[in-house]
Specification:
This protein is an alpha+beta fold. Strands 14, 15, 16, 17, 18, 19, 20, 21, 22 and 23 form a 10-stranded mixed sheet that branches. Strands 5-6-11-8-10-9 form a 6-stranded mixed barrel. A 4-stranded antiparallel sheet has the order 4-12-1-13, covered by helices on one side. A hairpin with a 3-residue loop joins strand 15 and strand 16 (588-597).
Amino acid sequence: MLMLALHGVRTRWVTFAGSFVALALGVGLIAATGLALAATFSAPDKGPQRFAAAPVVVRADDQLRVRTANGVRTRPLARTAPVPPALVTELAALGRTVEDRAFPVDLAATGRDGDPRAQGSDPRTQGSASRAQGSGPRTQGVEPRTGHPWSVAAAAPYRLTSGRSPAAPGEAVVTAGPGSHLRTGDRVRATTPAGATTLTVVGTVADRGFESAVFLGDEEAARISPAVDALVVHADATAVRDVVARAGGGMDVLTGDGRRRADPGPDRDAEALVSVNALLGTAAGITLFVSVSVVASTFSFAVAQRRREFGLLRTAGATPGQIRGTVVAEAAVVGVLASATGWWLGAAGAPLLAARLVDAGLAPAWFAIGEQTWPLHIAFWTGVGVATAGALAASFRAGRTAPTEVLREAAVDSRTMPVSRWILAALVLLTGAGLLVTALVLDPGDALGRKAYITRPLLLIVGVALLAPVLAGPLVRALTWLPARLPGATGVLARENASAGVRRTAAVAAPVVITVALTASLLGTVATLAEAKATEVRTATTADLVVVPGAEGRTLPPSFVERVRAVEGAVAGVSRPTAVTVLEEGTALVTSEARAVDPARLAAVAAPPVVAGRLTDLDDDSIVVNEEWLTTTVGERVTVWLGDGREVSLRIAAVLATGTGGNGVYVTARNAGGAGADRIDVAVAEAADPGAVAAALRTAAEAEGTGIRVLTGAEWAAAAAPGMSDSTRAGLWLILSMALLCTGIALANTLVTATTDRVRDLAVLRLTGASVPQVLRLVAVEAVAVVTVGAVIGAGVAAVNLAGVWGALALLGVRSGVVVPWGTTGAVIAAAAVVAAVSAVVPAAFALRTRPVELAGMRE
């Protein structure tokens, strides 16, 4: 059996070449993504960084801890409390202490002369800084940094690489990495919570990678930020713990590796890998799906092309089991060789994939492939299994058909769909449609999740691809109706050839169905959701003017907020970012983004989608929630934990529609957990002059000197609308490029194989008087017609998926249109048509170099 399989592979190498390439590429992609995925399972252990040289660090606990029936649940706090002054004094009695203060410092882009360089003021050219309830766009030309007192620099430790330490107000030491433009002697414009000032860089330290810092003199830092965020204590850790315990709870004493909890973003490395893990997991899943589909289709067509050979074997006495065994053995040989090649391709390509992820900003700079080898083993045996299973499924029909029936079917395609395929197609389609309908009925928001809109199309694609032999015939006749009526025989012949060879048509159309459906579904869904979120922002923002800080993540000075409130004719709605945590079903802590607002002025500057209650009923004892909460009855009380960890019981004043998830929670400033204002929505009073109000706001912003910006409501909505991010776009293209590569190879392989097996048909056309260009034109037209069939089927699948997304949005109360990626989808279809035409014409041109009489006399 093995010798017969090897002989079959050697003599029909053209048929198996495409299967080999497709499978090797699929295994290589699975291996590469598997190795990269394995590298995301654990973040590197870097140890303490910010306080690596500090013996003991005391700081407030940054975790909310709630005891439940299933143990203590934790969630990060939105705002961490400072170290109490009394505790600082007590700890100072144990030994030397160093007070750390962390505060925002925004440095304007300057030259050595200290003159700021004005850069881009058009908000439409600047990226979004937040979601619908965020603070607004980030100003270009501003470099956000973190300020600290110089005395705490030794805790890292930082060492001067140039210059000296700050000795007077207005002097600073900055971290200077490879890409930094700052150096000793520069004068820079700096914005701090105490206002704008000019700093002179008197020294630089090496950038250690965990923060961009500005170190000021201790007294100046204390003036800017009086609160002590962390305290370095040079004393015995046990004595420190005793003092902290006597002072009460809420403080952490960090030693050893625990000091990393005081680093900026201690979990940032693990969090950075979450999105990479999701991306690579999705890419691996889609690659596996496409590989299975392509290889199964390829082997199925290869078996269908050999029906005459199988019929002769049956006539000679071969049993169905022997035929199936031969086909499976051939597939196993191809599978082992292709999987071994894919193993090597995956191992070589994984580092390139990791580098591409880093370059595209999808993975942190330190991300690299580890030493794991298990993904290679999984990819290898997956390839062997896919090849064997695909060939086994394709060989059943040939193996169980009578000899005379096989010979008869070799002339023309009939009974293209066995009952088992009908049943499987129906089950897959019903499952995909059932999941979509269930999500729309029970939880429309679930239909908008990334896992849902990426995996749901796969079921519909598989179901429709299984029906391709049935759909191909009617679609070919419908799409070629007009060309068949044009002068000349090309249209008629293309129509009849494609209609007669339904299996060939379906095999060519299947990769196109996968390509078009995936491209239009994924890109269309992401673009539709982005447009829906933008629509929510535009609808909810009714303010005439919006005032935002000069950089993302910053707050507006309290003095400026009071000046805005005093502007005549301005109805100012000040809002603050915070968070609210609720315990659901007694076991799960769920944190929601929230805005602290002025209830009396909220209705004048915003129009959130209220479904129950009234926004004007919001007060210090109440809360506005959305429909995602378990408790949504107006008037009921709910226990929540505020951004600073305080536990309170609040009455539900109103309920908002869920929407796309951007409709958060509203509380009052008293329940903001100490957060500062990061946005002021301003409505111009009816009797006031809009131009005068805008001018007064801009004058106040300029007087503050901190880069505060005054935008129109439309400008802010356009800049703050959460469009498709560069990382999301790059991730989608990573996924799609893998799928497109596999399907492109499958398309080329199928057409090369099909055209090679049609040399006798082409010779007959030559003998009837057709010229070589006419025959090649017919082959190209037929290939393009079949690609069009696949594109129409794929577009239909994408239309169903996008209709499901639109329906989910409508049920969630979001009135937004569907965004179809016409340009990208058209480019994909055009590329498929070019690949198909070239793959059909080139082998036909080589075959037609032989005399037609000799071709007509060829036998298999």
